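Hmm, what's this shape?
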Amino acid sequence: MGKELEDILVGKQHIVILTHMAPDGDAMGSALAMYHYVMDRFAVGPLHYKTAGAVGPQAEPAVRQVSVIVPNAFPAFYSWMPGAEQIKIYEKEPDACSALIAAADLFICTDFNDPKRINPAGDKMMANPATKILIDHHLRTMDNGQWTKDYSDPSASSACEIVYRLIAAAGQVDLRQLALTEDIATCLYTGLMTDTGNFSYSSSRPEVFEMAAALLRAGIDKDAIHHAVFDQYSTDRVRLTGYALYRKMRIYPEHHLALITLSADELDQYHYQQGDCEGLVNIPLQIADVCYSVLMREERPKPGTPKPRIRISFRSQGEHPVNIWANEVFHGGGHMNASGGEIFGSLAQAVQLFEKTYKTYIKQ
């Protein structure tokens, strides 16, 4: 399948790589790994052409421009990632990002499968008839045929795992013998590590650890990556975590369920920054006999949006699915043990819907 991807890349001049709203480690890792792969495989620039090893005026013109666009700001603890300084944020530069999307002749979309998850960039992408490649690992409820090439696998641990396979297939090498640049490997490991909760879920297949071994052989410093992601928190974030667990966590013991709710006012009290709640939903699962954990976080209404958005994260352990609940009730989805959703309305309304439906969707 990777050879197909390279065939698509040949001759493309303006590539835009897109990933989802509120980018997490897998979104960042898969998008940036693809960025480095294209940059390394096809020399980029108006005067230097390179395709499959051919250099010079007889070679087919290489990609002229590769842009990574995210809908909104990514957490500061991902800013160290190789290539992160090249990322354009749609919310901050809507005109520049819109121009790049309009000029693109190829889109590579990672870690999401519904263009609505990147709006308004998604609407602009769909208005451009250019080739669209999807690289994703989430369950999909419908397919409107918007993707030219679809590399999806819900059994994969992460979008980064699929990017890894594509790169290996392009080189037609055994995955265990794959040679990667350190930058690509670093990005891929970041996504793999974060989307499996440090290999605590979605990582039971041997291929996941074979991938990790290949990334180590590429020269990554896994301890430094872990430190950069998990050990660079602000004082406010740590205090917010303590407050959420002590004051805002409810336990439903008869259903092995925990719920944490945080209002916009409470987040403001702790000077909330994008990503400060990442990983919080996992902590209640450390409690004996808690199999399900849900986090609700309120976002203030934006101009033109009359209601606040409630972001909802779901986590579970073992054979206790949360993705169907997230999809059917909260307009989201994801993995069996790690999903997300949202509703527009008050936090109280979100809790009411949670309490009305949880008995239907969880296993006792």
Observations:
- The chain has a mean pLDDT of 88.
